[in-house]
Amino acid sequence: MAKIIPVPVFDGVVFGATGDLTLRKLLPALYYRFRDGQMPEGSRIVGTARSALSDDGYRAKAQEALEAHILHDDLDSSVLRRFLASLHYVAIDASADNANWGGLTELLDPERIRVFYLATAPALYGPTCRNLAAAGLVTPRSRVVLEKPIGHDLASSQEINDSVGAVFTEAQTYRIDHFLGKETVQNLLALRFANTIFERLWTSDVIDHVQITVAETVGVEGRAGYYDTSGAMRDMVQNHLLQLLCLIAMEPPVTLNADRVRDEKLKVLRALRPIPPHRIGAETVRGQYGAGAVNGKPVPAYRDDLGAREPSTTETFVALKIEVRTWRWANVPFYLRTGKRMPRKISEIVVQFKDQPFSLFPDSAGQRQPNRLVIRLQPEEGIRLEVMTKDPGPGGLRLSPTVLDIRFDTAYGMRFPDAYERLLMDTVRGDATLFMRRDEVEAAWTWVEPILEAWVAAPEPPRPYAAGSWGPTASIALIERDGRTWNEDVA
Ligand code: BG6
Question: What is this structure's pTM?
């Protein structure tokens, strides 16, 4: 197991401390970092929200959440006791101008690194930051962590960034995209830049196209209110999928310094060809799930999940064909798709290499399949390289695809930390490499916004697809029109 380097003692303040994100993701992530000795004892986590709760009341809530979201074998009672002792709670309506900040001021140590984590609605980011500054709580060693979505479009994201930026410098601002904290996503940098073999092949001379699929089996769960104002484009594509595309498409950064890496990702976002209005129908597909079955269980349609009386035109599925206008990627399309209520939860990137220009082998040797590099983000994280080999035996020359397969769980035999574990510790360490810079967020909105506008203006609603299918048939046509197919070899 890799050596764990503890972060410095810190004070973390979580706004939205009784919300789903904090209870389901942040507290379990902090527990694991505490258990593994990375979050030093003496550090404090202060939960804040509007409800009146005592420290003990919050600890009881936290314990319940940890018991629900941490594997039973990982919950050590003495570690849990010590971890809970590091939790505190202060009731504040942080976005209200007359909020009383006394309780928080008393608790925090002015000398320590201070991380303000805003796990609240983005509309509250500006007022919360302004009030933190007015209460004198923003020290030089403070940083702020913002959850996505940063805005609803370019203008609203600029407004949020301006209001946060009036208090925190860009270097103090950590915009989370939790996909960047996933182990296999971090591994993309290692795969591309710590090996000789791939980078040489990473060009339009050799690569035919790239596919990125992020499929989920879940529907909107308890988040219908948020989701219906967002949809798959804002919820997944504008951030997670475009970030994955950037990591695949970017040029090697000159160093691994956060800004140098982000400079390269920004260049990719700026090189995305805007989809012209007359190509929206051919290069984008939006869908909405109807009733169907996932994992053998019947599930309702989106509009029933929503409980809406009016039909909704929010998309729960998006497929796109994207061009990256650079020398390296000329004529190499990137196909992206993401959706809820798909047959399997799977996130993967497929780099499909070109077919051989000429074959030495007779037809009787079987059909050749171009090489493919499949980077599996989840589940069963790993990397597969599909190559052609000869079938063993004396019965003549036959070729078949064979897989060079690295499964990270078996290769390393360890628990894979959740993305939030890495990202939370990075905010304390002050490493912003895996966080989105303001210009990246805004460049992504600039590209996405015209598509959203065209969809709003379009007379037809999102295309229906049955829950438990791979999306509307139009998404299959989107890629097959180019003589290619989605990788559904997901066994
Ligand atoms: C979130 C989206 O950012 O990512 C959710 O808001 C989505 O709608 C989730 O379900 C997927 O994350 P993961 O880590 O489960 O793949």
Answer: 0.95
CATH number of 10-147: 3.40.50.720
Q: Structural domain boundaries of the chain?
A: 10-147, 180-416+443-480
Percent of residues, the chain, with pLDDT higher than 90: 85
Residues 106-140 have pLDDT tens digits of 999 999 999 999 999 999 999 999 999 999 999 99
Q: What's the CA-to-centroid distance between 212 and ligand 1, angstroms?
A: 15
CB of 348 closer than 6 A to ligand 1? no
| pLDDT digits 0-9 by tens, 331-357 | 999 999 999 999 999 999 999 999 988
Sequence-separated (6 or more) residues with CB below 8 Å from residue 153: 445, 449, 452
Beta carbon of 442 within 6 Å of any ligand 1 atom? no
Q: Read off the pLDDT band of 490 (50, 70, 90).
A: low
Closest listed residue to residue 92, CA positions, set 82, 81, 105, 79: 105
Residue nearest to atom 8 of ligand 1 (CA): 235
Tokens 């995209």 sit on residue: 177
Both tokens of residue 148? 């996505």
The verdict on domain 180-416+443-480 having CATH code 3.30.360.10 is: yes
Cα 2 vs. chain centroid, distance in angstroms? 24
The conformational region for residue 482 under phi > 0 = left, psi -120 to 50 = alpha, else beta, is alpha
State yes or no: is 69 an active-site residue.
no
Question: Following CA atoms 383, 387, 393, 395 in sequence, which dihedral angle do they give, to the nearest 10 degrees?
Answer: 140
Q: What DSSP string runs through 472-486? A: -HHHHHHHHTTT---
